[in-house]
Amino acid sequence: MLAHFPTPLLFSARHGVRQMRTPWADGPEYVTQCPIQPGASYTYKFNIENQDGTLWWHAHSKWLRATVYGALIIYPKFGVPYPFPVPKQEFPILLGEWWDRDIISVLRQAQFTGAAPNVSNAYTINGQPGDLYKCSSRDTTKFYVNSGETVLLRIINAALNQELFFTVANHMLTVVGNDAAYNKPFTTRVVMIGPGQTTNVLLTANQSPSRYYMATRAYATAQNAAFDNTTSTAILEYVSISCSSKTCIPPRPLLPILPRFNDTPTVTAYTSQLRSLPSENAKVPTKIDKNLFFTVGLGLVNCTPGPRCQGPNNTRFAASMNNVSFLLPRKTSLLQAYYQNMPGVYTTDFPAVPPVKFDYTGNVSRALWQPRFGTKLYKLKFGSNVQIVLQDTAIVTTEDHPMHLHGYHFYVVGQGFGNFNPRRDTARFNLVDPPIRNTINVPVGGWSVVRFVADNPDSHLTWGLAMAMLVENGAGELQSIEPPPPDLPPC
Questions:
Q1: pLDDT digits (tens, 9 = 90+) for 431-446
Q2: What is the DSSP code string of 167-228?
Q3: Which residues pair with 125 in a beta bridge?
């Protein structure tokens, strides 16, 4: 992909590809390599191994991924069947956001003021807001189906930070895959999909031939926080009622009922049904070598009142994990600094547990609201079995948090509300058929626990509230990574 932007740098990522031995093609700017300069190009070379389903690619520099993204579809090898009946058709469904302003200007304003960024003006389905918005009805996205056939919808949430509900009027959806991994099928009327996640669903056109809205709207949980409270639509149209003459007036599509924007019970009921297939069960790590506990949330940085201090009560917003707000380097990437033994770029003292233990989802002391800043990594031994507890906090407000681990998929062995209690909650872990994901939503005022094997030597970034992990290179041919390509973009 070659794109031109006048000021910000562009970098592209294949979201969810494991990138075994090719971490240079992973994508996060200043993590795996430096960004592509405006007007320049770079060729990505990587292998896809043991992954089937739907992923996506997106720009990975600042907020450019709001508009620069697309589907990445991985079909089974020849001769390998789907674990479900082959659909007659398939449609990529890319859910996104739209701003009436230049997206980089929105970001720069937030960075300058320290306040929350402006929310989007609309959501989109395959680039179109739909006919519930002004001036967009003529270009509403349409999908055509034949009566009785089953189609595969490859749903991708390409929104910046917004979880989304998705449904189709009068039709049931059978969930068969998430994040390029199959799951035990289950049927639902509504899907909740977090930013960066993908979900494959089967839809059977078994209703009266007509036109039906697909619709998406926000799932938002932060108290008193602004969000885009609009609904985007596309149209599922049965071929038998398509108009062939200029005088034909097609029926108005039927609008589905969507959950309320803060309907956490519906979200919990949906996510609790996700289970992996039996073929994956034996791979769940049971003996843990490294147990990590990361708090995730917002913080407020004290500052001198003025134009650059427009957050709540004369502060600036800052995201943090374990009270550390991550700073990306600017002169080289983390991976280049590691493999070229460049000192002073990062430190490996990211805390494995919160520096101060507190009531994470209760009344948090204001003394704990201000994070520290640093380029701090946590170093993992190659081949170690890792467990991470991701704990939401009530600093500023509780909310659900999207978290993505580059270059990995992981098992979600547990989720719950309140503070994670290892004595009580560990006994409830699902170690039989936990879902496999590369992106997870930490529940509002709650926690998630993920497990994975550190078998991909690389620098990896968690997405949303950034921190980085360094998996040291292992011994042996299969563990070694490809050498850095000679045409790595300069900083």
A1: 999 999 999 999 999 9
A2: EETT--EEEEEETTEEEEEEEESEEEE-TT-EEEEEEE--SPSSEEEEEEEEE--STT----
A3: 95, 128
From residue 327, alpha-carbon distances to 9, 141, 324 in Å are: 17, 40, 9
Residue 10, beta-bridge partner list: 36
The burial class, CB within 10 Å (0-12 / 13-18 / 19+), for 172 is middle
Which one, of 167, 251, 267, 172, lies nearest residue 217 by Cα?
Answer: 167
Give the residue from 272, 127, 122 showing the smallest Cα distance to 186: 272
| pLDDT at 6 exceeding the cut of 70 | no
Q: Please state, in angstroms and as integers, the Cα–Cα distance from residue 212 to each residue in 141, 205, 208, 253, 464, following that order.
A: 12, 10, 10, 5, 34
Check if the beta carbon of residue 471 is closer than 8 Å to that of residue 430: no
Query: Over pLDDT 90: what percentage of the chain?
Result: 72
Listed in sequence order, the residues at least 6 apart from 320 whose beta carbon sits closer than 8 Å to its beta carbon are 295, 296, 297, 298, 299, 371, 465
Nearest in space to 262 (alpha carbons), one of 230, 301, 222, 295: 222
Kindly tell me the burial class for residue 340, based on how many C-beta atoms sit within 10 Å of its own C-beta (0-12, 13-18, 19 or more): exposed
Spatial strand order in the sheet of 377-380: 377-380, 468-471, 458-463, 401-405, 439-442
Q: Binning pLDDT at 50, 70 and 90, where does residue 472 land?
A: confident
The alpha carbon torsion through 425, 194, 160, 317 (nearest 10 deg) reads -30
Q: Which candidate, 440, 458, 473, places its Cα nearest to that of 13?
A: 458
Q: Tell me how far apart the alpha carbons of residues 14 and 378 are, in angstroms, rounded to a whole number.
A: 23
Burial class of residue 278 (count of CB atoms within 10 Å of its CB; 0-12, 13-18, 19+): exposed
- Candidates 348, 351, 326; CA nearest to 337 is 348
Predicted TM-score (pTM) of this structure:
0.94
Q: Are 407 and 18 in contact (CB under 8 A)?
A: yes
For the record, the structure tokens of 258 come out as 């969507």
* 34-74 per-position pLDDT tens digit: 888 888 888 888 889 889 999 999 998 889 889 899 999 99
If pLDDT is split at 50, 70 and 90, which confidence band does 255 have?
A: very high
Q: How many CA atoms lie within 13 A of 101 on its CB side?
A: 12
CA 403 distance to own-chain centroid: 6
